[in-house]
Each structure stands twice: as C-alpha cells, then as structure tokens.
Design brief:
Elements: H1 26-38, H2 40-45, H3 59-71, H4 77-80, H5 87-93, H6 105-111, H7 117-133, E1 147-158, E2 169-176, E3 182-198, E4 204-210, H8 228-242, E5 248-251, H9 258-266, E6 270-274, H10 283-290, E7 297-301, E8 306-316, E9 326-335, E10 344-351, H11 359-368, H12 371-382, H13 394-418, H14 422-425, H15 430-446
Parallel strand pairs: 1-5, 5-6
Antiparallel strand pairs: 1-3, 2-3, 3-4, 6-10, 7-8, 8-9, 9-10
Helix pairs in contact: 1-15, 3-13, 7-13
This protein binds zinc ion.
C-alpha cells in the first residue's frame, strides 16, 4: 500500500480509520461515554415505582426508553410506540438480548407518574456531581466563579378543558371568535422556573420547579397562583443545597428586590441581576448619583464591534428589605459599525461575591443571562420535544422533563468534553451542530445489532 503523496511503499503500521471520528458509531460512543464517565446505566437503574418487583417491564426500561425518546427527539409517544418493538431500540435500551418488546407507551404513561420526581432528578444530580468531581466546573468563568441563571418557562398551554389536570394554572385570555367578537376564554398552562449553569460554552440545567396553583400552595396564600419569584426562591434554595459550589445567581428584571437579595445573602451567594425600572431602588439612587457624570470607563471592543461606556456605584444601602451593600452598574453599548443607532443600556444590581468582578465582567455575566433562553428554551422548543404534551399528569411531566434534562446535559457534556473538535468541524451554529449529531446517532441506531452498554 502507499500512503500520502509519497511514491514509496508505506512501511509504517496500518491504522484503521477511526469510526468515532467518522461519526458512524455516534450513539454507541455517547452511551459508552455516559456509562463509563457518569455511570448512566446505574443512575437510570436506581429509579423505582410503586409496582411489584416482578412487573414485566422494569422501571429501568421505562426510564431508559423515556431518556432516549428525549435524546433522539422522538416527537410523541405515538411515534415511540412502534420503536418499543424494534430490535435496534430494544438493543439500545437493553441489554437483555432475549427481550422481544419494551411494552407499550401505555405502560410508560402508567409508570411515569409512579416514579418520584426526586428520583428522576437524582439522575441529573448524579451526572453533575460526577462532572464536578472531574473538575469540569473547577476553573469557573469570570472571576473564577460559577454562575447559575434563573428564568421562567412556559412549555404547555391549552384551551381544552379535557386536557388539564389539578396542577394546571388557569388564566383568562382574550380570543377572537369567528364572528370577529372577542371572548374571554379559560386557558390552562404549566409554568416552571428553570436554573441553568451558564459558562462560556457549557450550559447545564440544574433545576426545574413548577409554579403551583392556588389550592396546592403550602404557604397559606391560597387566593392566587404562585408567582415566578416564589417558585424561584424554592428552587434556588434546593439548587444551592445540592450544588454548594455554585457561587452567583444571574436573573432578569423581576428579581432585584429585597426579599430575593436577602435569600441570596442567606445562601452566601452573589447575584448579578438586571434592573429595569429607573424608579425602583437601588437603581433610582444610582441614577441620581451618576447624574450627568461622564462614563467611569470606556472600552473599545473591536472584536465585538462595540464601544462600551460603564458607570459604577458601589455600596448603596437604599433597600429597607435588604441589609447589605449593593453595587449598581450601568453600561451603554454602541455598535461601532452603526454609531447613529440607539445604544443599548444595561443596568445591573450586584451583591455578595460578585461585587469583586470588574465592570466589563459584570456586563458580560448580565448579558450571558440570555444563554438560558437561547441554549435551553429555544432549543427545547425548536429541536427537542419538551413542548409536546407526552402525558398530562403533573408528576409524570416532571419525571419526563428530568429524564429529558439528563439527556440534554449529557449531550452537552459529550459535545464539549468528549468531541472537543466537533464544534469547530461543524461551524459555529450550535443548534445545527447538535442536530447533525442527533442525525448521526439515528443513523447509528439503525445499525445497532447489539447492546451498546457493553462496548466491544
Ligand atoms: Zn395540567
């Protein structure tokens, strides 16, 4: 044989083309990575439900089938039904080779509500705890800190009274009728607060918490549905309790109020929070102090094509409901290629360990809050099937979301930790990169003649 451009016979060792590099064994590679690095199989096997131990379809099969349903973007349980009897999908969930079927989606729908939400959450907790032990988060991001963004998310809504459950929130919305009149109609919906670690590339979900309807609230305020802040506080406590190494919470204009900042302080965290209302403290006082002062720092970021003016106001104590110094920062960003366009202004409230950041770092972190909408919500809606109503039982929805989130997180870790050059090879469009990766996994699924849980 000959190699390269040389006309001489090749005398070096003969090396097989790397099938992983070719993307031909992508699903097998993903399962092997998940199992070897994060004990995926053991984590999914730890789930239990209320059925007897001799149930024909073990809980593990239900959990694994749901996990792969999320990962491979199967669009509905109807679409999953025939796969449960396909040899390749049985092999994927396996590894029991003698199995003829993984049951039916009716079984999955019946079992999911019997799995405790905490157990489903523990799959993701297990993956992220291992990632932390593997030093994935050790270096942190700006200022060597670890950040978590919080935001509200509403994946499910329906006007059909037949498709609602006791955990649905209800609101009245104006709906235009065929005769042109407008009628107030009841709409049923589920809303959550999501917590996601944000970083330069590695965005991973660490929590999801439902907003409770009035009659299920435990805080005595049973005259209205919970607001986003109430659920977010519950979520942040749990996130910090589980992932003690997270340093700073990043959130939007709903959050810079005394009670929320006090919770952040109690949890010994920092916060970088967007402030939108010029009339609300502490931004009101910062604006008064800045008056017509010129910017304290001006940065020309030619790479981003921006001119950034920054104002700083440390140590404000104008909130009655928060005891501690607050730093307020304002940034005015002008596009260098369009200096006549209206500049974008950001005002940010900063407390705790985040106050050590530079003005530019604070702006970068505040802007990175968009990761939770771009990386999670947009992708979950456009590419994943999070907004499809697979089941309408509040507990089953949460169990299913936690299994989908485990798939989302593991895919993110796989992409950025295992296939480090993959993003560069596929360009910078992350959504397209991931879609291509899933296509390669589906191609590999079609070729799956044995269980991938035992490599070789
Ligand atoms: Zn519901």
């Amino acid at each position: 044989m000959r190699c390269g451009l040389s006309s001489q016979p090749c005398t070096g060792p003969v090396v097989d083309a790397d099938p992983f590099a070719m993307g031909q064994r992508r699903l097998r590679q993903f399962v092997a990575y998940g199992n070897k690095t994060y004990a995926l199989r053991r984590l999914l096997q730890s789930l239990t439900d209320g059925r007897s131990d001799d149930a024909t379809i073990p809980t593990f099969h239900v959990a694994a089938a749901t996990f792969f349903c999320g990962l491979l973007r199967v669009r509905s349980f109807n679409a999953l039904e025939p796969k449960l009897k396909e040899r390749a999908f049985i092999n994927l969930v396996g590894p029991e080779a003698e199995l003829d079927s993984l049951g039916s989606v009716d079984t999955i729908s019946r079992v999911l509500p019997q799995i405790a939400v905490e157990q489903a959450r523990d799959v993701t907790v297990g993956i992220l705890a291992k990632a932390e032990r593997n030093k994935v988060f050790r270096e942190g991001w700006h200022g060597a800190l670890r950040y978590v963004a919080l935001d509200g998310w509403e994946p499910i809504s329906s006007f059909s009274p037949k498709r609602h459950c006791e955990h649905c929130l209800v609101r009245h919305v104006k709906v235009k009728q065929p005769d042109g009149s407008v009628k107030l109609v009841e709409q049923y919906y589920h809303r959550y607060v999501v917590a996601m670690i944000i970083d330069e590339r590695l965005d991973l979900v660490v929590g999801i918490e439902p907003l409770l309807p009035a009659d299920l609230r435990s805080d005595g305020a049973t005259d209205s549905h919970e607001g986003e802040l109430t659920a977010a506080k519950r979520l942040l406590r749990r996130v910090k309790e589980t992932f003690g190494w997270i340093d700073v919470v990043v959130a939007d204009g709903l959050y810079p109020n005394g009670p929320f900042l006090s919770l952040v302080q109690d949890l010994r965290m920092g916060a970088v929070i967007i402030a939108r209302k010029n009339t609300d403290e502490p931004l009101k006082e910062a604006l008064r102090i800045w008056g017509t002062q010129p910017a304290h720092e001006v940065v020309l970021d030619t790479e981003a094509g921006e001119r950034i003016e920054l104002w700083d106001c440390p140590d404000l104590e104008t909130l009655d409901t928060y005891k501690g110094p607050i730093r307020v920062v304002r940034a005015r960003v002008t596009k260098l290629d369009d200096p006549k366009a209206t500049p974008h202004t950001w005002c940010v409230v900063v407390i705790g360990k985040a106050t050590k950041l530079s003005l530019r770092q604070i702006l970068a972190v505040a802007r990175a809050r968009w990761h939770i909408e771009n990386t999670a919500f947009n992708q979950w809606t456009q590419c994943w099937k999070f907004t499809h109503v697979f089941t309408h039982n509040a507990q089953a929805i949460q169990v299913l979301y936690w299994l989908f989130i485990a798939a989302f997180n593991l895919l993110t870790l796989f992409l950025y930790r295992q296939l480090r050059s993959y993003g560069r090879d596929r360009g910078k469009d992350v959504t397209r990169t991931i879609s291509r990766l899933i296509d390669e996994m589906l191609d590999d699924l079609a070729r799956l003649t044995a269980s991938p849980w035992h490599p070789g």
